[in-house]
Amino acid sequence: MTEEHGGAPPDEYVEAEIHRLLAEDPAVAEQGITVVHRERGLVLYGEVESPHRREEILRRVAERFPDIPITIDIGVIRAQAPSQVEELP
User: Do 24 and 2 form a contact (C-beta atoms < 8 A)?
Assistant: First the structure.
C-alpha cells in the first residue's frame, strides 16, 4: 500500500467508491467500467453506449473526487446498426 497524503482515503477505497457510484447512480448505471490506480492518479477503462454517457461518468466522478487526478479511457461502442456501409481504403 502506498503512503497517503493529506488524509486522502486509500486507493482501493476510492476505486470501490467509484464502482459503487457508477453502478448505483441512475443517470449512469454502468457496471462495465474498470478503475485502475496508476502512478499519477486513477484511470477509468471500458466502453459505453454514447459520448454523453462517457461525459456523465467523467462529471460524476470528478464531482465526487475533485482532488484525485482521473484519466478517462472509455470508448464509445456503436449501440445501433450503421446506416451505411463503411468502406476502408
Answer: no
Side chain identity, residue 35: V
27: cell is: 443517470
Burial of 80 per CB tally in 10 Å (0-12, 13-18, 19+): exposed
Residue-level pLDDT at 46: 92
Which of these, 58, 33, 28, 31, lies nearest to 46 by C-alpha position? Answer: 33
Predicted model pTM: 0.67
Element at 47 (helix H, strand E): strand 41-48
Of 63, 49, 78, 48, nearest to 18 by C-alpha is 63
Could you state, in chain order, the average pLDDT of each consecutive group of 10 residues for the chain (89 residues)?
A: 46 82 82 84 88 89 88 81 70
